[in-house]
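Reviewer comment 2.1 asked that we show a complete input and output for one of the modelled complexes. We chose the S-adenosylmethionine case, as it is the one discussed in the main text.
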Amino acid sequence: MADPVERYFDRRARAYDGRYDHGRLQRIIRPSLLRGREAALALARSLGARRVLEAGCGPGRLGEALLAAGVAEYIGVDVSGAMVERAQARLARFGDRARVIHAPVAAAPVEGPFDLVVALGLFDYVHDPEATLGRMTAECAGVLLATFPRWDVVRDPVRTLVYRYGYGCQIRHYDERRLAALLDRCGIGDATVETRRTGFRVTARVVPPPG
Ligand SMILES: C[S@@+](CC[C@H](N)C(=O)[O-])C[C@H]1O[C@@H](n2cnc3c(N)ncnc32)[C@H](O)[C@@H]1O
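Response of the prediction step:
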């Protein structure tokens, strides 16, 4: 049986994807959706990234922007089959420059090193953050960009209950201490952490161990 997160995103894939078609509205109600994609794109450009891995790629909107901007190879990983189908259809025009894999990030059959590894809006849903972030770090030889949700007193009391009792999903939140401990356990020492009302954005340079 599908896990609750997979089931939730299988049902929500179409509606989630559609959010990107209403940019002006989303800038007001969910500013982080477009801001995250813009930050990842700007970072890829400034690094001149050739290989990019996206953990929790959803419908492939970032992948599309990255490939159109000239990234040589993009691999997206997602646990939801419906999201994977959407991303594959969206990225088909890029041929073998794009691959989308249906798997949890921690167990995905991908091979680094990647110049840029990204996770936007993933860690709300991840029940094994250390294994997931650890895997992302292990495949990175460049820069890692990830967002982490922060408890927001306006958004989260109702949202957490709806996900828990409506969909059977446990939403996770981070505070400064919890995030710092996670980064530390994954060997991420030199990170820039930007704090916003609903989340943290972490940018870190990852130097692979010698050998
Ligand atoms: C909020 S969506 C974000 C999608 C995309 N990053 C974006 O910004 O448009 C979160 C995505 O993470 C996926 N996901 C959740 N847990 C996952 C896991 N452990 N491994 C892979 N994907 C996961 C969900 O299926 C969903 O597509």
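The pocket of S-adenosylmethionine is lined by residues 5, 9, 36, 56-58, 61, 77-80, 83, 104-105, 120-122, 125-126, 132 (CB under 6 Å). We note this here for comparison with the apo prediction described in Section 3.2.
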